[in-house]
Protein backbone atom coordinates (compact mmCIF):
# COMPACT_ATOMS: atom_id res chain seq x y z
CA UNK A 1 0.00 0.00 0.00
CA UNK A 2 1.44 3.42 -0.87
CA UNK A 3 2.84 5.50 1.95
CA UNK A 4 0.81 8.64 1.18
CA UNK A 5 -2.45 6.70 1.64
CA UNK A 6 -1.29 5.32 4.97
CA UNK A 7 -0.36 8.80 6.21
CA UNK A 8 -3.66 10.48 5.40
CA UNK A 9 -6.32 7.77 5.81
CA UNK A 10 -7.90 7.62 9.28
CA UNK A 11 -7.64 3.81 9.22
CA UNK A 12 -5.51 1.41 7.22
CA UNK A 13 -5.35 -2.35 7.60
CA UNK A 14 -2.47 -3.88 5.71
CA UNK A 15 -2.14 -7.66 5.38
CA UNK A 16 -3.87 -8.26 8.70
CA UNK A 17 -4.04 -11.88 9.89
CA UNK A 18 -5.70 -13.38 12.94
CA UNK A 19 -5.78 -17.01 13.99
CA UNK A 20 -7.56 -18.45 17.02
CA UNK A 21 -6.26 -21.57 18.73
CA UNK A 22 -8.16 -23.75 21.15
CA UNK A 23 -6.60 -27.08 22.06
CA UNK A 24 -5.39 -28.76 18.88
CA UNK A 25 -7.61 -26.71 16.63
CA UNK A 26 -6.56 -23.58 14.79
CA UNK A 27 -9.02 -21.31 13.06
CA UNK A 28 -7.49 -18.84 10.65
CA UNK A 29 -10.21 -16.19 10.60
CA UNK A 30 -8.44 -13.30 8.85
CA UNK A 31 -5.91 -14.27 6.18
CA UNK A 32 -4.58 -10.95 4.94
CA UNK A 33 -7.14 -8.17 5.24
CA UNK A 34 -6.41 -4.92 3.42
CA UNK A 35 -8.59 -1.87 3.96
CA UNK A 36 -8.16 1.85 3.51
CA UNK A 37 -10.90 3.84 5.21
CA UNK A 38 -10.74 7.35 3.81
CA UNK A 39 -11.65 10.51 5.72
CA UNK A 40 -15.39 10.91 6.03
CA UNK A 41 -16.36 7.78 4.11
CA UNK A 42 -18.89 5.29 5.39
CA UNK A 43 -18.18 1.64 4.61
CA UNK A 44 -20.54 -1.26 5.24
CA UNK A 45 -19.09 -4.63 6.23
CA UNK A 46 -21.58 -7.30 5.24
CA UNK A 47 -20.65 -10.94 5.65
CA UNK A 48 -22.21 -14.16 6.96
CA UNK A 49 -22.13 -14.93 10.64
CA UNK A 50 -18.82 -16.31 11.90
CA UNK A 51 -16.68 -14.98 9.04
CA UNK A 52 -14.78 -12.55 11.25
CA UNK A 53 -16.57 -9.19 11.24
CA UNK A 54 -16.29 -8.64 15.00
CA UNK A 55 -12.69 -9.88 14.96
CA UNK A 56 -11.88 -7.33 12.26
CA UNK A 57 -13.57 -4.51 14.19
CA UNK A 58 -11.68 -5.44 17.37
CA UNK A 59 -8.39 -5.28 15.50
CA UNK A 60 -9.33 -2.00 13.80
CA UNK A 61 -10.31 -0.59 17.20
CA UNK A 62 -6.95 -1.56 18.75
CA UNK A 63 -8.70 -3.83 21.25
CA UNK A 64 -6.62 -6.75 19.99
CA UNK A 65 -3.40 -7.06 18.02
CA UNK A 66 -3.12 -8.96 14.74
CA UNK A 67 -0.78 -11.98 14.43
CA UNK A 68 0.59 -10.41 11.27
CA UNK A 69 0.10 -7.22 9.31
CA UNK A 70 -0.33 -3.61 10.29
CA UNK A 71 -3.14 -1.52 11.74
CA UNK A 72 -2.51 2.19 11.15
CA UNK A 73 -4.76 4.75 12.85
CA UNK A 74 -4.34 8.42 11.94
CA UNK A 75 -0.90 7.65 10.47
CA UNK A 76 0.31 5.84 13.62
CA UNK A 77 1.15 2.16 13.30
CA UNK A 78 -0.44 0.57 16.37
CA UNK A 79 2.08 -2.28 16.62
CA UNK A 80 4.91 0.19 17.18
CA UNK A 81 3.22 1.95 20.10
CA UNK A 82 3.30 1.16 23.80
CA UNK A 83 0.10 0.22 25.63
CA UNK A 84 -0.41 3.75 26.98
CA UNK A 85 -0.06 5.40 23.58
CA UNK A 86 -2.37 2.84 22.00
CA UNK A 87 -5.02 3.45 24.65
CA UNK A 88 -4.71 7.21 24.15
CA UNK A 89 -5.19 6.84 20.40
CA UNK A 90 -8.18 4.57 20.93
CA UNK A 91 -9.81 7.07 23.28
CA UNK A 92 -9.13 10.09 21.13
CA UNK A 93 -9.57 8.78 17.62
CA UNK A 94 -11.98 5.85 17.74
CA UNK A 95 -15.65 5.67 18.71
CA UNK A 96 -17.40 2.33 19.18
CA UNK A 97 -21.05 1.37 18.90
CA UNK A 98 -22.13 -2.18 19.68
CA UNK A 99 -25.35 -4.11 19.14
CA UNK A 100 -26.16 -3.63 22.83
CA UNK A 101 -25.86 -0.11 24.15
CA UNK A 102 -23.51 -0.84 27.11
CA UNK A 103 -24.51 2.42 28.80
CA UNK A 104 -23.60 2.74 32.47
CA UNK A 105 -26.93 2.17 34.24
CA UNK A 106 -26.30 4.40 37.24
CA UNK A 107 -25.46 7.46 35.12
CA UNK A 108 -27.87 9.69 33.23
CA UNK A 109 -27.91 9.96 29.44
CA UNK A 110 -25.99 13.23 29.67
CA UNK A 111 -23.40 11.76 32.07
CA UNK A 112 -22.90 8.74 29.82
CA UNK A 113 -21.95 11.11 26.99
CA UNK A 114 -19.82 13.31 29.26
CA UNK A 115 -17.77 10.49 30.76
CA UNK A 116 -15.55 9.52 27.82
CA UNK A 117 -14.79 13.19 27.28
CA UNK A 118 -13.77 13.71 30.89
CA UNK A 119 -11.60 10.58 30.77
CA UNK A 120 -9.92 12.16 27.73
CA UNK A 121 -9.24 15.33 29.75
CA UNK A 122 -12.08 17.60 28.59
CA UNK A 123 -13.32 20.06 31.25
CA UNK A 124 -16.61 19.12 32.86
CA UNK A 125 -18.44 22.24 31.62
CA UNK A 126 -17.26 21.70 28.04
CA UNK A 127 -18.13 18.00 28.18
CA UNK A 128 -21.63 18.93 29.30
CA UNK A 129 -22.12 21.41 26.44
CA UNK A 130 -20.98 18.81 23.92
CA UNK A 131 -23.18 16.09 25.48
CA UNK A 132 -26.26 18.30 25.42
CA UNK A 133 -25.63 19.34 21.82
CA UNK A 134 -25.17 15.76 20.64
CA UNK A 135 -28.16 14.42 22.52
CA UNK A 136 -30.20 17.35 21.22
CA UNK A 137 -29.22 16.41 17.65
CA UNK A 138 -30.62 12.94 18.33
CA UNK A 139 -33.91 14.44 19.52
CA UNK A 140 -33.16 13.62 23.16
CA UNK A 141 -33.08 17.13 24.66
CA UNK A 142 -35.94 16.09 26.94
CA UNK A 143 -34.11 12.92 28.10
CA UNK A 144 -30.82 14.37 29.37
CA UNK A 145 -31.45 13.52 33.01
CA UNK A 146 -32.92 10.07 32.40
CA UNK A 147 -31.15 6.93 33.54
CA UNK A 148 -30.78 4.28 30.78
CA UNK A 149 -33.39 2.11 32.50
CA UNK A 150 -36.01 4.78 31.76
CA UNK A 151 -35.15 5.08 28.06
CA UNK A 152 -36.60 3.06 25.18
CA UNK A 153 -34.34 0.71 23.18
CA UNK A 154 -34.02 3.22 20.35
CA UNK A 155 -33.26 6.06 22.77
CA UNK A 156 -30.57 4.01 24.52
CA UNK A 157 -28.91 3.25 21.20
CA UNK A 158 -29.04 6.95 20.24
CA UNK A 159 -27.27 7.80 23.51
CA UNK A 160 -24.68 5.11 22.77
CA UNK A 161 -24.04 6.64 19.33
CA UNK A 162 -23.79 10.14 20.86
CA UNK A 163 -21.28 8.76 23.38
CA UNK A 164 -19.21 7.21 20.57
CA UNK A 165 -19.07 10.59 18.78
CA UNK A 166 -18.42 12.63 21.93
CA UNK A 167 -14.65 12.95 21.56
CA UNK A 168 -14.90 13.86 17.86
CA UNK A 169 -13.17 10.65 16.75
CA UNK A 170 -11.76 10.31 13.24
CA UNK A 171 -13.22 6.79 13.04
CA UNK A 172 -16.49 5.24 14.14
CA UNK A 173 -16.59 1.44 14.37
CA UNK A 174 -20.02 -0.11 14.71
CA UNK A 175 -20.96 -3.77 15.12
CA UNK A 176 -24.63 -4.32 14.19
CA UNK A 177 -25.49 -0.93 15.74
CA UNK A 178 -29.24 -1.34 15.28
CA UNK A 179 -29.37 -5.15 15.29
CA UNK A 180 -31.16 -5.27 18.63
CA UNK A 181 -34.03 -2.98 17.58
CA UNK A 182 -37.33 -3.64 15.80
CA UNK A 183 -37.34 -2.86 12.07
CA UNK A 184 -39.06 0.52 12.33
CA UNK A 185 -36.85 1.78 15.18
CA UNK A 186 -33.74 0.34 13.52
CA UNK A 187 -34.45 2.34 10.33
CA UNK A 188 -35.01 5.56 12.28
CA UNK A 189 -31.88 5.15 14.43
CA UNK A 190 -29.83 4.21 11.39
CA UNK A 191 -31.01 7.36 9.56
CA UNK A 192 -29.81 9.43 12.50
CA UNK A 193 -26.53 7.54 12.74
CA UNK A 194 -25.76 8.23 9.06
CA UNK A 195 -26.85 11.88 9.33
CA UNK A 196 -24.67 12.45 12.40
CA UNK A 197 -21.66 10.58 11.01
CA UNK A 198 -21.85 12.59 7.79
CA UNK A 199 -22.41 15.84 9.70
CA UNK A 200 -19.41 15.24 11.94
CA UNK A 201 -17.24 14.12 9.00
CA UNK A 202 -16.31 10.85 10.72
CA UNK A 203 -15.08 7.84 8.74
CA UNK A 204 -17.17 4.82 9.66
CA UNK A 205 -16.89 1.05 9.30
CA UNK A 206 -20.26 -0.49 10.08
CA UNK A 207 -20.91 -4.24 10.26
CA UNK A 208 -24.50 -5.13 9.45
CA UNK A 209 -26.54 -8.08 8.22
CA UNK A 210 -29.03 -5.67 6.69
CA UNK A 211 -28.42 -5.33 2.92
CA UNK A 212 -30.84 -2.40 2.57
CA UNK A 213 -28.96 -0.42 5.21
CA UNK A 214 -25.62 -1.38 3.67
CA UNK A 215 -26.74 -0.09 0.27
CA UNK A 216 -27.08 3.40 1.76
CA UNK A 217 -23.40 3.60 2.66
CA UNK A 218 -20.60 4.82 0.38
CA UNK A 219 -19.29 1.33 -0.35
CA UNK A 220 -19.81 -2.23 0.75
CA UNK A 221 -17.11 -4.76 1.56
CA UNK A 222 -17.42 -8.41 2.53
CA UNK A 223 -15.17 -11.07 4.01
CA UNK A 224 -14.41 -13.97 1.72
CA UNK A 225 -11.98 -16.69 2.83
CA UNK A 226 -10.47 -14.35 5.39
CA UNK A 227 -9.91 -11.48 2.96
CA UNK A 228 -11.83 -8.28 2.40
CA UNK A 229 -13.49 -8.01 -0.99
CA UNK A 230 -15.25 -4.98 -2.47
CA UNK A 231 -18.86 -5.62 -3.48
CA UNK A 232 -19.90 -3.79 -6.64
CA UNK A 233 -23.18 -1.88 -6.47
CA UNK A 234 -25.96 -3.63 -8.43
N1 LIG B 1 -11.45 -15.40 21.24
C1 LIG B 1 -11.75 -16.38 20.37
N2 LIG B 1 -11.26 -17.63 20.52
C2 LIG B 1 -11.55 -18.61 19.63
N3 LIG B 1 -12.31 -18.42 18.53
C3 LIG B 1 -12.83 -17.20 18.33
C4 LIG B 1 -12.58 -16.12 19.24
N4 LIG B 1 -13.22 -15.01 18.75
C5 LIG B 1 -13.85 -15.41 17.62
N5 LIG B 1 -13.62 -16.71 17.36
C6 LIG B 1 -14.11 -17.47 16.21
O1 LIG B 1 -13.74 -16.76 15.04
C7 LIG B 1 -14.78 -16.79 14.06
C8 LIG B 1 -15.18 -15.36 13.69
O2 LIG B 1 -15.83 -14.76 14.81
P1 LIG B 1 -16.46 -13.29 14.74
O3 LIG B 1 -17.14 -13.04 16.04
O4 LIG B 1 -15.40 -12.34 14.31
O5 LIG B 1 -17.54 -13.47 13.56
P2 LIG B 1 -18.68 -12.50 13.05
O6 LIG B 1 -18.57 -12.45 11.56
O7 LIG B 1 -18.60 -11.21 13.77
O8 LIG B 1 -20.00 -13.29 13.47
P3 LIG B 1 -21.47 -12.73 13.84
O9 LIG B 1 -22.02 -12.08 12.60
O10 LIG B 1 -22.21 -13.99 14.19
O11 LIG B 1 -21.33 -11.79 15.00
C9 LIG B 1 -15.90 -17.61 14.67
O12 LIG B 1 -15.82 -18.93 14.19
C10 LIG B 1 -15.62 -17.54 16.15
O13 LIG B 1 -16.10 -18.71 16.82
Automatic annotation (TrEMBL):
GO molecular function: ATP binding; ATP hydrolysis activity; transmembrane transporter activity
KW Cell membrane (keyword) present: yes
UniProt domain ABC transporter: residue ranges: 11-231
SMART domains with a match to the protein in the record: AAA
One GO term (biological process): protein localization to outer membrane
Record's keyword annotation contains Membrane: yes
A single cellular component GO annotation: membrane protein complex
Keywords from the named record: ATP-binding, Cell inner membrane, Cell membrane, Membrane, Nucleotide-binding, Transport
Family annotation (PANTHER family): IMPORT ATP-BINDING PROTEIN, LIPOPROTEIN-RELEASING SYSTEM ATP-BINDING PROTEIN LOLD
The family this protein is said to belong to: Belongs to the ABC transporter superfamily. Macrolide exporter (TC 3.A.1.122) family.
Name of the featured protein: ABC transporter ATP-binding protein
